[in-house]
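User: Sequence in, structure out. Go.
Assistant: Echoing your sequence, followed by the structure tokens.
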Amino acid sequence: MIHIKKRYLIPGIILGVLAIFLFFLSDIAKNYLVKNSEKLIGRKISIGELHVNYAKVALQVKDFVLFEDNKTDQFLSFSEFYINLNPWTLLQNEYSVSEIRLAEPKVQIIQDGDKFNFDSLIPKDSTEVKKDSTANEILKFTVRNIQLNNGQIKYIDVLKKSEFDLKDLNLNLPLIAWNNEKSNMGVDFTLGEKGHVNVQAAVDNIQKKYQIDLATENVDIQPIKSYMTDYFDVKSLQGALTSKLKIVGDMNEVINIAISGNGSVANFSVTDGRAEKIISAPKVSVSINEMNLKTFHFGFGKIELDQPKLLVTRDKSAMNIMQFFEPLFRADSIAATTAPPTQEAGTPVTYKIDTICITNGLVSISDNTLNRPFKYDLNRLNVTMTGLTESASEIPVEFNTLLNNKGELMGKTVWSMVDFMNLQMNAKVKRMDLVSFSPYSEYYVAAPMTQGWINYDLGLKMTSTTLNNTNNVVVDELEFGKRTKDTTAMKVPVRLALYIMKDKNDQIKFDLPVSGNPSEPQFKLGKLIWKTFANLMVKTALSPFNALASIAGANPESMDKLPFAFAQDSLDQKQRDDLTKLATILKKKTDLVVNFNQTTDSDKEKAQIAVELTKSEFAASRNTDPTTQKVKVSEIKNDDANLLAFIRKTVPAVDSLGIETACTKRIEASRIDSRFQEILNQRNKALSEFLIQNQGIPAENIQVTIADFRTLPQELKVPQFKVEVSIK
């Protein structure tokens, strides 16, 4: 009996000791790992609790922390890690895990140039190659019920001074299964507060192929903002990504990956560095026909932007669009200057987009470079582009939009990716309200536009060496307000020219054909159009009656001057008729001011006055003599023998001097000057009274002046009124 008890006592003691050892093994292992962690992995760790459930073959670790090299800051932590093994499947050569749970994992990744805070955890490279002893074995494993709850990843880039914080990471993975022939995996987890991700993967180890079906729903795209700052001046990025993608790959060729599917971003918006929402859209949709990373082909079906909004702001320093892309331009510039002189040609990039469609868009334009802000909207913008490829020679683009809700722009353009200078465009502007452009008219012509609409037809055909541009413009009922105090107005008389160009139907019609050679270094289409327009305005202002004469049915050449005869002091019938036609124009162009500047050759005028005074004296002497026939001054000829005999009484040398010089000698200079001034004044008075009293033209529309005869050019030394027009 005692012998039997001893036989059971020893195994019992052994089992007891083993049970005690296993009971305290968790604490022993925990203390050992914590104490020797720096020797084992090179980092300090701390563990709150470590438990082993031998019945379930499960391990639980709580409050784990892996510290940084400084032994103070936390690199990795989690509140709980739980794994439940299923050892019985080993009998069938399969590794099986019933459950893996990781709660509140947190990891902080810090990058400083080429260095990361986890570098010390990575083993050094080893050149030793171990023989794969499992090549011919069938490998199977199954992992069920994988859970990750409330995870957080924080990424800090020291050089860029940027942080990326991904919070609320949740993963619920029902099954991962693998064997040497075929493997399947399904992943379903939440990402962020509302995001949902589903991944289904199938691997064919025999064919060395795999397929991944990736679906996302309402995934916040804000985290990718950090990757955009090198290329765009972006402050924030908003949107929720929903997508369905199929990824097919080849395990023998890592780069041989084909992607297809579709995706959309809801409530998309980008805020730039100026804290302005530069672009937004309720929905952006993209369908992918095929993207192949091996062939570098990117094929898209339809790209749709529904109700996008674009903010375009021009300040004196720069335009917001240019500032937004400035990092990209800077990166391209640096790359261009640092690239090696020669590079081997790689696989060319090809792409194809079937359709790009913008529906019901809005472009808000602000110009803060004027004397007061200009704001304008392109409403209900629709754009359709088809057949975009890297080698397309003809890419049609159709567009239409409302112009500040009061006009319409529509057109079509065809351009080429082979030659960007190969461009054709036809566009129409219908009844665009000009009042909205008053900040520009005030800035450039010192007057607001108070009324007016414009219709415009544009035609453009351009190649690398030729350009033909037609601009047909019709302006209806254009009216300007009172002059402003803007000091930025141009010297080009735009306001006057446009007013003059109005026809009897209150329309302004003109064509601006432009041609040139785009290959010339100084060629700029906008500048060329403006130069042509400015030349037209100057030409119209300098020759106003070419446009005004048709209103009165007059000859333009007879309206820019009103000629007189020397010593003429009243209006003849021809002059009255010409002034009547001018009055007709002024009655229809009530804002025109006409300046009559009187010119003459004072020496010749005074010589003729001396002759007229002499003839008056001669007629008076004849008319007082009862024995002679009565004569009229206007009927006396310069070669009249009796007149010459009369002059010889005081100037005997009249025949050698000529009648004008002889008369000038016989008449006192003061008397001639007095009559000269009297004639000038009588002409001014006759002209003013005829227009104001006879024709009813307001006095404020008439200005009559006398030129300074001392500085007149020779071509103006004729007795006339030079007629010039201006605008109130």
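User: And one key feature?
Assistant: The longest helix spans residues 2-40.
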